[in-house]
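Entry details:
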Amino acid sequence: MTIQTLLKTVIKAVAATAITSLAAAAHAGYLKWEMVELPASSGATCSNGTPYRFFVNRTPFTSKTVVMFEGGGACWDQGACKGGTLLDAINPDGIPANYMTDWNRQAHWGLVTPFTARLHPLQSVQTQSWNIVYLTYCTGDVHTGNKTALYNNVDAANPMVYMHKGAVNAQAVANWLANNGLKKPDHLLLTGFSAGGVGSSALYPAFRETLQPKKMALLADSGPLFNVPRTATPAQAPSVLLHNKIRDVWGLDGANGLVTQLITKYPGAGSADNLGSITAGLGKIFPNDRIGYTMFQEDTNFSAFSYQKFYPEIANAPTNEERLKLLNVKWRQEITPWLADMKQHSNIGYYIPNKRDINGSHCTTIVTFGGTSIVEKKLKSVGEFLDNLLDGKGAVMRAYEENPTTQRVLLSDMFADWIAPLIP
């Protein structure tokens, strides 16, 4: 048998095996979205009392798993909880069974982020060959609440009962995964954008304990928990008004609240009097994991969510340009101590470019990684940060853009700028 004949035989055998495996996978329900509706007995629910549903896309070829926490605003009053604007809570009507196949929903068939598409037209990432979990968001509490609220500030005659049960939902998802073949993966990545960035950070301990992965990493995108002591003044920590508001309305400090549970179980993680202490706390209590945070320095959405309702001079700014300027002053003020917190632990990294036009410089990992380069550090995109977190080689990357370029250099950045106006 010649070498050429041998190669042809091997190729045919490999191809036949692959085809057989793919056929079996398709028949078993692999490589497609499976809707999971959690029973009421789990405590899981959307804000309006409808069943909580999330989605799983399995593969038979690996145990590695990525869990994506969905983003989408938040609320603590009747108007915002009804939804409708950029900063309001998403999915006030719950999660329909066809959420992943309805283009009008935020998931957009899973294309909202490269982490939730097997084949993404704009971006490839190594986790696209992993098991994929899309943890939907319908509770208006950045996945952290455990309280039922009654809101009537907009329509007193028709008060709204609103269930902030995000933390309950997330734990129920982790339990379901553990009981349905996804426990102890070789590698687990927890990630999320915006509200999901907060959720993936806050629920990291719960998923680590429940799923017991051999190796785990976090990539929290654009949901920073800044260093904000409860007793700080607004001048010292501008997010203090937001943090102290959500403590109560989402039940964070309650007997069954997420903050209470975290500090009770992991007293070394931080302080209940500083919600942002979990940022560095994760690195402390999980020293063998790689913890990563990313966002833009000129994020106009999360900054608006953090400050606009609490500072009249911002809400009533005479022009949008002035509003954005005032937002960014407070935002940048809080970045400095946030970075200092992360530098305390060698396993915590960050990736913070200046801006891009997509979605008001909010979220580095949605749609495409284009537009996230840090040219001065020879980094093409946030994808290099992701690979550093997952590959576990060398020091955890810490990249902060100090000298933003006035003109784009990379084609991927130029393309991101070009498509930005096309993205709602």
Notes: Residues 3-28 form the longest helix (26 residues).
